[in-house]
Amino acid sequence: MSAGSPRIETHPIRGGSNPAQSISRGGFLFFETSSWTGDLSKAAPTDFGESCAYSIFSVYAYGDSSVEASIRNGNIQDVGFVEFDQIAVLGGTVYQSFCTVVWGKRSESIRPARSDGEKQ
Protein backbone atom coordinates (compact mmCIF):
# COMPACT_ATOMS: atom_id res chain seq x y z
CA MET A 1 0.00 0.00 0.00
CA SER A 2 1.30 3.44 -0.82
CA ALA A 3 -0.16 5.53 2.00
CA GLY A 4 2.59 8.14 1.91
CA SER A 5 2.04 9.59 -1.54
CA PRO A 6 -0.81 9.42 -4.04
CA ARG A 7 1.83 9.41 -6.81
CA ILE A 8 3.36 6.06 -5.80
CA GLU A 9 1.45 3.34 -7.67
CA THR A 10 1.83 -0.41 -7.94
CA HIS A 11 -1.87 -1.28 -8.22
CA PRO A 12 -3.15 -2.42 -11.66
CA ILE A 13 -5.91 0.22 -11.50
CA ARG A 14 -4.44 3.71 -11.22
CA GLY A 15 -5.50 5.40 -7.99
CA GLY A 16 -7.05 2.24 -6.58
CA SER A 17 -4.64 1.17 -3.87
CA ASN A 18 -5.70 3.25 -0.86
CA PRO A 19 -8.32 5.72 0.44
CA ALA A 20 -6.00 8.75 0.12
CA GLN A 21 -5.73 8.12 -3.61
CA SER A 22 -9.51 7.80 -3.92
CA ILE A 23 -9.86 11.34 -2.57
CA SER A 24 -7.41 12.71 -5.15
CA ARG A 25 -8.99 10.86 -8.12
CA GLY A 26 -12.64 11.31 -7.07
CA GLY A 27 -15.20 8.65 -6.29
CA PHE A 28 -14.54 8.39 -2.55
CA LEU A 29 -18.17 7.46 -1.72
CA PHE A 30 -18.51 4.88 -4.49
CA PHE A 31 -15.98 3.88 -7.11
CA GLU A 32 -16.29 1.29 -9.88
CA THR A 33 -13.82 0.81 -12.69
CA SER A 34 -12.36 -1.66 -15.14
CA SER A 35 -9.07 -1.70 -16.99
CA TRP A 36 -7.13 -4.25 -19.00
CA THR A 37 -3.64 -5.11 -20.10
CA GLY A 38 -2.48 -6.99 -23.16
CA ASP A 39 -2.71 -6.67 -26.91
CA LEU A 40 -6.40 -6.76 -27.78
CA SER A 41 -5.67 -6.90 -31.52
CA LYS A 42 -3.83 -10.24 -31.29
CA ALA A 43 -6.41 -12.07 -29.23
CA ALA A 44 -9.67 -13.66 -30.23
CA PRO A 45 -10.63 -14.78 -26.74
CA THR A 46 -13.54 -17.16 -26.46
CA ASP A 47 -13.18 -18.23 -22.83
CA PHE A 48 -12.41 -16.57 -19.52
CA GLY A 49 -11.50 -17.33 -15.93
CA GLU A 50 -12.22 -15.04 -13.00
CA SER A 51 -10.90 -14.72 -9.46
CA CYS A 52 -11.79 -12.12 -6.82
CA ALA A 53 -10.63 -10.79 -3.48
CA TYR A 54 -12.83 -8.88 -1.04
CA SER A 55 -12.24 -6.62 1.95
CA ILE A 56 -14.80 -5.58 4.56
CA PHE A 57 -14.13 -2.61 6.89
CA SER A 58 -10.43 -2.84 5.96
CA VAL A 59 -10.13 -5.55 8.62
CA TYR A 60 -11.42 -8.78 7.10
CA ALA A 61 -10.16 -9.81 3.68
CA TYR A 62 -10.57 -13.03 1.75
CA GLY A 63 -10.16 -14.41 -1.76
CA ASP A 64 -7.45 -14.73 -4.36
CA SER A 65 -7.53 -12.25 -7.23
CA SER A 66 -4.29 -13.40 -8.83
CA VAL A 67 -3.83 -13.96 -12.54
CA GLU A 68 -2.79 -17.53 -11.76
CA ALA A 69 -6.08 -18.23 -9.95
CA SER A 70 -8.05 -16.81 -12.89
CA ILE A 71 -6.16 -19.00 -15.36
CA ARG A 72 -6.78 -22.02 -13.15
CA ASN A 73 -10.49 -21.21 -12.64
CA GLY A 74 -11.09 -20.88 -16.38
CA ASN A 75 -8.69 -23.61 -17.52
CA ILE A 76 -7.13 -21.02 -19.83
CA GLN A 77 -4.21 -22.26 -21.92
CA ASP A 78 -3.55 -19.32 -24.28
CA VAL A 79 -3.95 -15.90 -22.59
CA GLY A 80 -5.26 -13.05 -24.75
CA PHE A 81 -5.55 -10.22 -22.23
CA VAL A 82 -6.24 -9.56 -18.56
CA GLU A 83 -9.07 -7.39 -17.22
CA PHE A 84 -9.15 -5.85 -13.73
CA ASP A 85 -12.44 -4.81 -12.09
CA GLN A 86 -12.70 -2.90 -8.83
CA ILE A 87 -15.56 -1.68 -6.65
CA ALA A 88 -14.91 0.42 -3.52
CA VAL A 89 -17.27 2.01 -0.99
CA LEU A 90 -15.93 4.92 1.09
CA GLY A 91 -12.50 4.61 -0.44
CA GLY A 92 -12.46 0.88 0.17
CA THR A 93 -12.66 1.26 3.95
CA VAL A 94 -16.20 -0.16 4.18
CA TYR A 95 -16.15 -2.59 1.24
CA GLN A 96 -13.83 -3.35 -1.63
CA SER A 97 -13.80 -6.03 -4.29
CA PHE A 98 -11.04 -6.60 -6.79
CA CYS A 99 -11.49 -9.14 -9.57
CA THR A 100 -9.08 -10.36 -12.22
CA VAL A 101 -10.54 -11.78 -15.44
CA VAL A 102 -8.21 -13.61 -17.82
CA TRP A 103 -9.53 -13.86 -21.38
CA GLY A 104 -8.14 -16.42 -23.78
CA LYS A 105 -8.66 -19.92 -25.07
CA ARG A 106 -8.96 -23.20 -23.25
CA SER A 107 -6.70 -26.09 -24.11
CA GLU A 108 -8.10 -28.68 -26.54
CA SER A 109 -7.29 -31.40 -24.02
CA ILE A 110 -9.76 -29.97 -21.50
CA ARG A 111 -12.70 -29.37 -23.79
CA PRO A 112 -15.64 -31.63 -23.03
CA ALA A 113 -15.87 -34.83 -25.07
CA ARG A 114 -18.87 -35.59 -27.25
CA SER A 115 -21.08 -38.53 -26.38
CA ASP A 116 -19.42 -40.62 -29.12
CA GLY A 117 -16.03 -40.11 -27.44
CA GLU A 118 -14.57 -37.70 -30.02
CA LYS A 119 -13.40 -34.23 -29.03
CA GLN A 120 -15.47 -31.29 -30.21
Task: Describe the protein's architecture and organization.
- With 120 residues, the chain is mostly beta strands.
- The protein has a domain at 28-108.
- Helix content is 12%, strand content 40%.
- The chain is built from 2 helices and 5 strands; from the N terminus they run αβββαββ.
- The protein has a 5-stranded antiparallel β-sheet with strand order 1-4-5-2-3.
- Strand 4 and strand 5 form a beta hairpin.
- It is elongated and about 45 Å long.
Q: What is the fold's blueprint, element by element?
A:
Blueprint: H1 19-25, E1 30-37, E2 47-56, E3 60-63, H2 67-74, E4 76-89, E5 95-106
Antiparallel strand pairs: 1-4, 2-3, 2-5, 4-5
H/I helix tally: 2
Structural category: mainly beta
What's the SSE pattern?
HEEEHEE
What percent of residues adopt helix (DSSP H or I)?
10-25%
How much strand? 35-45%
* DSSP strand tally: 5
| Widest sheet: strand ordering | 1-4-5-2-3
Distance between the termini: 46 Å
- Mean pLDDT rating: 77
Low-confidence stretches: 1-6
How can the largest sheet be summarized? Answer: 5 strands, antiparallel
Described by the principal axes of the CA atoms, the overall outline is elongated
Q: How large is the radius of gyration?
A: 18 Å
Region (Disordered): 1-23
Protein name: TRL-like family protein
Pfam families: TRL
